[in-house]
Design a protein that fits this description.
heterodimer; A: alpha+beta; 4-stranded antiparallel beta sheet; globular; disordered C terminus; B: mainly beta; Sulfite Oxidase, Chain A, domain 2; 5-stranded mixed beta sheet; disordered N terminus; binds zinc ion
């Protein structure tokens, strides 16, 4: 506790997000529940229509057909667009899930 | 030795020098269907084409009115950002010059908009002067829905994502507004000869 300024202490370098983000990107996102930013419909990502024959993977809302997620790798970059997803919920396994039971 | 590789090398036709932009291959007789969403099937009695946005007066053509506009035939090479090219494709339709004739505008950009919500942005200067068409016929037949029918934009000097399928109109804009792929890291202009696939290329 050498830092007297709480606000500064609470502001972490973004490197600190590497661990949590690595978790996000190693889970199987297809088991996630996705909530459409357009119509609010929530469904397993795996139950969303996927258009793979395009310059990117395009995942659409099963209810309103709006784009929920776009993902591509090309030109030496990975790109993920989640504007169309209001929320992604991934249920964790085992001990990590303690106290985080999914809302049904 | 005669059995080695026989029958395979002969299928690939020679592409004349200078016809393929960098990083592209000739897809030959095939015509791949790329789609980022469900194919809309808009009935012709509900179809119209609009010119709107930064214009003195909005223009609208019903399908029947569109069919009466002066038509042009073009034979062009098309280049998809996913690296296939198709040479000598035959299209028929209406020049964008015809659709924008007499339009008074201060716009320098257009956004082509389509059934299904697809959009793509282009400089106005790239869809005028005989560089772009709204086509409803491919290879002598009505344009099939999977290739963008009843009508699509055709801007052959740019990557094919700029040639919006299922196009329903052009919105003229003063500011450049990135479209569906442009807002996802694809190049804003998309010149295949400069291999402008991604932003920053
Ligand atoms: Zn939705």
């Amino acid at each position: 506790m050498t830092d007297p300024d709480d606000a500064v202490a609470r502001r972490l370098d973004a490197n600190a997000a590497a661990g949590p983000l690595a978790e996000l990107f190693t889970v199987d996102l297809t088991v996630a529940m996705a909530t459409c930013a357009g119509c609010g419909n929530t469904a397993p990502l795996a139950a969303h229509p996927l258009y793979a024959h395009a310059p990117a993977l395009v995942i659409r809302c099963p209810k309103c057909a709006a784009v929920v997620l776009r993902y591509a790798s090309g030109g030496g970059r990975l790109r993920l667009d989640l504007r169309g997803a209001r929320l992604l919920t991934v249920t964790l396994d085992g001990a990590a899930a303690h106290g985080l039971s999914p809302v049904q | 030795m005669s059995f080695v590789s026989r029958g395979f090398t002969g299928r690939r036709r020679a592409v004349p020098a200078g016809r393929l932009p960098p990083g592209q291959y000739d897809v030959g007789d095939g015509f791949p269907v790329l789609s980022a969403g469900p194919t809309p099937y808009t009935s012709l009695d509900r179809w119209d084409f609009r010119v709107r946005g930064q214009v003195d007066e909005e223009r609208r053509w019903s399908w029947a009115e569109f069919q009466k506009l002066p038509r042009e035939s073009v034979v062009v090479d098309v280049h998809c950002v996913t690296s296939w090219s198709k040479l000598d494709t035959r299209w028929e339709g209406v020049s964008v010059d015809t659709l924008l004739a007499d339009v008074v505008t201060a716009a320098e950009f257009v956004v082509a908009f389509s059934d299904g919500g697809y959009t793509t942005n282009l400089p106005l200067a790239d869809v005028t002067d005989g560089q772009a068409w709204v086509v409803d016929n491919y290879d002598g037949r009505p344009l099939a829905p999977e290739h963008g029918g009843p009508a699509r934009l055709l801007v052959p000097h740019l990557y094919l994502w700029k040639s919006a399928k299922w196009v329903r109109g052009l919105e003229l804009t003063v500011e450049d507004e990135p479209g569906f792929w442009e807002s996802f890291g694809y190049h804003n202009y998309g010149d295949p000869w400069r291999e402008q696939r991604y932003a920053g290329d």
